[in-house]
């Protein structure tokens, strides 16, 4: 059992949860995730470890309450417990000093980007962070990211904060000048956003790393649920990823697999509110 120490709403539907999990806090690296179940028999939800404090023995998870499983997780109040938190899982992010790096986050992807951007800055990179969301309330962690980014650029679809449009607009600006062109781009967010970033960087051959979020069940490479196509090869995001070369990812098949259970998910969500 894992105690919930704090549970705050960061943006509409997005919770930041602090858990007591000393062994995970001591072992985790940026880019790794855990699989969480709110109670026995409940859905297993993969969640990136947003941050960890080894001394305090805590980890931070960002949970977007989209489906029935995530809604049950965010419903646990401080002082309550989550049944299982398994991890750390997945391969750690490969971090080195590339020079100029752009970190692009969309929606809850910004939360996933946070530990990565922090580690890239700590390795000596000059990090420009670009974050986007539907509107101002969906822009998260701007201040936290500014603490170690050379610059944070914000876009919103309705123009209520930062520049109106998508994150790709700001990335395009950055890429237009040799003085700001990133050596490497990390992009984390919805599948269409990561795909758009990869297509933008492809003509200039800027290495682009994306973090994939397919359906996961066991998190150990046994069930095949998280299969993704990278180049001509089938890979399992839980053991081979979750980060991959964005120029090799088959985003179409990833999107198709993610939408496979949408009807079932809708029914579960309706059941939860009856
Ligand atoms: Fe089962 Fe990856 S979650 S193989």
From TrEMBL:
Cofactors per UniProt?
[2Fe-2S] cluster; FAD
Q: How is the cofactor bound?
A: Binds 1 [2Fe-2S] cluster per subunit. Binds 1 FAD per subunit.
- Keyword terms of this UniProt record: 2Fe-2S, FAD, Flavoprotein, Iron, Iron-sulfur, Metal-binding, Oxidoreductase
Q: Which InterPro entries match?
A: Cyt_c3_hydrogenase_gsu, Dihydroorotate_DH_Fe-S-bd, FAD-bd_FR_type, FNR_nucleotide-bd, OxRdtase_FAD/NAD-bd, PyrK_electron_transfer, Riboflavin_synthase-like_b-brl
In alphabetical order, the GO MF annotations are: 2 iron, 2 sulfur cluster binding; ferredoxin-NADP+ reductase activity; flavin adenine dinucleotide binding; metal ion binding
EC numbers, comma separated: 1.18.1.2
Q: Which stretches make up the FAD-binding FR-type domain?
A: 1-95
GO BP term, example:
pyrimidine nucleotide biosynthetic process
What protein name is recorded for this chain? Answer: Ferredoxin-NADP reductase
The record lists FAD as bound by 69-70
NCBIfam families given in the database record: PRK06222.1 (NF004862)
Q: Which Pfam families match?
A: DHODB_Fe-S_bind (PF10418), NAD_binding_1 (PF00175)
| Positions annotated to bind [2Fe-2S] cluster | 223, 226, 238
Is the keyword Transport assigned to this protein? no
């Amino acid at each position: 059992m894992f105690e919930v120490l704090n549970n705050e709403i960061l943006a509409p539907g997005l919770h930041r949860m602090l858990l007591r999990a000393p062994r995970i806090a001591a072992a985790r690296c940026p880019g790794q995730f855990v699989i969480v179940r709110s109670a026995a028999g409940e859905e297993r939800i993969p969640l990136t470890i947003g941050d960890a404090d080894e001394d305090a023995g805590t980890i931070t998870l960002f949970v977007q309450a989209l489906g029935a499983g995530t809604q049950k997780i965010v419903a646990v109040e401080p002082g309550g417990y989550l049944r299982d938190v398994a991890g750390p899982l997945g391969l750690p992010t490969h971090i080195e000093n590339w020079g100029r790096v752009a970190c692009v986050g969309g929606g809850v992807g910004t939360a996933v980007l946070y530990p990565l951007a922090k580690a890239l800055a700590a390795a000596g990179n000059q990090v420009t962070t670009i974050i986007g969301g539907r509107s101002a309330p969906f822009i998260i962690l701007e201040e936290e990211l500014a603490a170690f980014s050379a610059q944070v650029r914000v876009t919103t679809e309705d123009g209520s904060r930062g520049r109106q449009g998508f994150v790709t607009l700001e990335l395009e600006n950055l890429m237009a000048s040799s003085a700001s062109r990133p050596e490497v781009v990390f992009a984390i967010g919805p599948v269409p956003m990561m795909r758009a970033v990869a297509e933008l960087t492809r003509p200039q051959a800027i290495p682009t790393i994306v973090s994939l979020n397919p359906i996961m069940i066991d998190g150990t490479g046994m069930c095949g649920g998280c299969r993704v196509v990278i180049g001509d090869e089938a890979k399992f995001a839980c053991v081979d990823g979750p980060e991959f070369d964005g120029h090799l990812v088959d985003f179409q098949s990833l999107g198709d697999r993610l939408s496979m259970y949408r009807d079932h998910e809708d029914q579960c969500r309706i059941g939860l509110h009856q």
